[in-house]
Amino acid sequence: MTSLFFVMLVLxxxxxxxxxxxxxxxxxxxxxxxxxxxxxxxLKSDSTLFTYEEEFKRFKLSFDVKFEVDQFQISYSKLENxxxxxxxxxxxxxxxxxxxxxLKQAKEADPKLKNVSxxxxxxxxxxxxGEKYHNYELSYxxxxxxxxxxxxxxxxxEAPEYKGLIDLQISGNGWGGVGxxxxxxxxxRFLIQIFPKIGDFK
Length: 202
Hints:
The protein is of the alpha+beta class. Helix content is 46%, strand content 16%. Helix 1 packs antiparallel against helix 2.
């Protein structure tokens, strides 16, 4: 009986310790998630530049970016309403950089964020006209063009200062993707997505 009692006591202690450790880790993860959410709030605050689509958990540029037919360059002859559009693109890029700079500062200041990094995805769309494969390629080129345009303005999300913080991904949704608009010509747009990546806990 003594041996059985001892075995049960050991099992109880092990279970208690393991449960407490699990609860502690879950609390730490929750604290990190809440901190990340708080740091991303400013991106939701100015709806003139970014619109947050709650259903799809993503951001999109809240203003129209309309290309001439079969074009992808952000330039005067390839983009409708060039002057107004690039002014908004400039502001959106500056705000996005400001948010990422804040994420960088938060990570440097808060030890619990040391294993947190982010995927920054810039996705382009194309309307369902022409050949399907070509439009997937076209939408990718539009996203790459936006990245290159911001880079030319000194907004570089692949700069050494963001190493270990930002994983930039360029994508083209072509004819696919959720949340497409009913009017196909309105699907010439950009989505901006920021996904936190939380490393393993020891």
